[in-house]
Amino acid sequence: MTARELDAAGITAPALRAAYAACRDLNARHGRTYFLAARLLPVERRCAVHALYGFARWADDIVDGLDRRETPAERDRLLGLLEEDLAAGLRGGGAAHPVVRAVADTADRYGIDPRLFTDFLASMRADLTVTDYPTYQDLHRYMHGSAAVIGLQMLPVLGTVTDRAEAEPYAARLGVAFQLTNFLRDVGEDLDRGRVYLPGDLLAAHGVDRPLLQWSRRTGRDDARIRAALVAAAGLTRGVYRDAQPGIAMLEPRVRPCIRTAFVLYGGILDAIAEDGYAVLHRRSAVPRRRRAAVAAAGLARVLAARVPVAARGGSASGPPHHRSAARRGRGAAR
Question: pTM of the prediction?
């Protein structure tokens, strides 16, 4: 976390600054698309977004880290400890882990509903025992906790020009669209973990089942049935993006470039998958660096354009929209 970002957010306590910095470092290592888009946010809001995504990344690593050797029971115990640490942090009693300390502080500053974290951890725990989803409805219930709540957590940080309740369904859908994109990109890696996140009914409609996916992964050979199922999954995902898109206009103008950039970059992963011939069982598709840079440059231009009306009105370009209780607790947050 840069000193400028921390200062702009009003985060002054050294231990808390270090906690937010740990979240930023975690995201910089693991999320190229997300991290690039986050740099387009107003400077005073980046810390909170890094905290939310850092916590999600930390929990996900407990469940899915390929370099971990814990049994499912041990991972469940670690999730339980994380849950206890978060509960302590949300109660204001302080959290032991730096990432948890930062996300608890963010939840307090922006008044984020604690139930969203409960739902998220419930989906993380499901990953320890659930290995497939028979229908899209089943998968969607899982994604409420694993993806939709991320969009809902972000909304108080981003701010809206409409009533927040009106924007919430769109924020949830965008979180789902991003996760469906990840599921499609990571079919092979998830299969190695013993999981299939593509809906069973969608696969069955094209004559695909787990053994066929495992055969393709093991042999490196393609199958027309698998390709057809993956094309259908991509079509389903694009539909969720379309449903989510109107919500971008409901956000505060200064944050729209960030979310629009993430929208385009993640959608670009679907394009990359198609360009790779839907070979997701054999390699991981990625948006080319030059294309990512072009999208980011366009986002930066929109950021600069969004600042002009604020300056023309003589208003301030800083200050998070919902620092609900930071001043009350003496954290020196910018109002």
Answer: 0.86
Phi/psi at 48 (5° precision): -65, -40
| Residue 7 structure tokens | 């200062």
> Which residue do the tokens 């949830």 mark?
172
Distance CA 255, CA 158 (A): 6
DSSP string, 132-182: B-SSHHHHHHHHIIIIIHHHHHHHHHH-BSS-HHHHHHHHHHHHHHHHHHH
Residue type at 153 in one-letter notation: Q
Strand partners, 160: 251
DSSP 331: -
Which residue reads 């050979």 in tokens?
A: 221
Contact 109, 326 (CB under 8 A): yes
Q: How confident is the prediction along the chain (335 residues), in pLDDT tens digits per residue?
A: 589 999 999 999 999 999 999 998 888 887 666 676 778 899 999 999 999 999 999 999 899 875 667 888 999 999 999 999 999 999 987 889 999 999 999 999 999 999 999 999 999 999 999 999 999 999 999 999 999 999 999 999 999 999 999 999 999 999 999 999 999 999 999 999 999 999 999 999 999 999 999 999 999 999 999 999 999 999 999 999 999 999 999 999 999 988 998 899 889 999 999 999 999 999 999 887 777 677 667 766 776 777 655 444 444 444 444 444 333 333 333 32
Burial 235-258 (b: 16+ CB within 10 A, else e): ebbeebbeebbebbebbebbbbbb
Partners of residue 282 on adjacent β-strands: none
End-to-end Cα distance, the chain: 20
